[in-house]
Fold this protein.
Amino acid sequence: MTRQAFVDTSVLVDHLVQSGRSPSNRASELIANVARGTIDLFISETVVLESVHVLSKVYDVPRETVCIRLIELLSIPGIIHPHKSTMLKAYRFWAKQGPLSFADCYHLALTADLGLSEIYAFDKKMGRYPGVTRIEP
C-alpha cells in the first residue's frame, strides 16, 4: 500500500524554487517519490493559494512560470487534491487573465465545475469566465 501524507506550502515552494540548498533537494526528492508512486501527497486549496502567493510575491516568479510549474506538479498522479481538475482549469485561465487574482480564477472555475452558471460578485472582471455570468447583488 502506498504511504499517504499531507504536504505543506513550504515543501512545495522549496521544490519549485530550486535554491540548490538542502530543503529544496529534500523537497524535490519527496516529489520524485510521489512521481515513482511510493507516496501520495494530499494538497489543500490553502496550500495552493499560499504557494501562488509566495512564488509570485516573495520570489517574484512570473505568473506564466508559476502556472507551468504548478500545473506540472498537480498533474502528477500521486498529488491528491479534492478539486484537482478545477485547480488545473483555474491555472490555465489565470495564465491568460492579467487583472484577476488566482483566487478569483479558482472561484470562477469552481463555479462552473459545480454546475453553476452564475456568481455574485461586485468585481466586474469576474464576468470573464466562459459559461459563468457575474451578477451584482
User: Anything to note?
Assistant: The chain has a mean pLDDT of 93. The chain has two domains: 1-82, 84-137. Strands lie at 3-6, 39-42, 79-80, 118-120, 133-135.
